[in-house]
Amino acid sequence: MLMIFGYIFITMGIVTFLISAIGLIRMPDVYNRMQVGTKSTTMGTILVLFGACFIEPSWTWKLLLLVAFILMTNPISASVIARATHKDGEKLERDELRDVGL
Q1: Could you give the CA distance from residue 62 to residue 65 in angstroms, rounded to a whole number?
Q2: CB 34 within 8 A of CB 71
């Protein structure tokens, strides 16, 4: 029974990766692509790791440590990349940060 749950979670993670790949192609600018890329891949990776926890219970603590690491690092790295892209001069339709000098 646990194997079935594991495969369901892994399948949901793969579907999330697929949706993310489609979103990367369809989004209009770098900021939207970055949002799709980071949020979807974070969720997809977490779902795959949870599925692996169900399939191989002896790896649970190691996989949960990976989940915690991903949850801490992906949003921070996306924020740093977005900030650097903005400072580099990438244009937006509505730029609220430019008005306050950031």
Answers
A1: 5
A2: no
The secondary structure of 5-46 as a DSSP string is HHHHHHHHHHHHHHHHHHHHHH-SSHHHHHHHHHHHHHHHHH
Which pLDDT does position 28 carry in this prediction? 80
Is residue 28 in a domain? yes
Domain that holds residue 11: 2-90
pLDDT one-digit tens code per residue, 47-67: 999 999 999 999 999 999 999
The whole model's pTM is what? Answer: 0.81
Residue 99 is assigned to a structural domain of this protein: no
Q: Is residue 47 a contact partner of residue 12, using CB atoms and an 8 Å limit?
A: yes
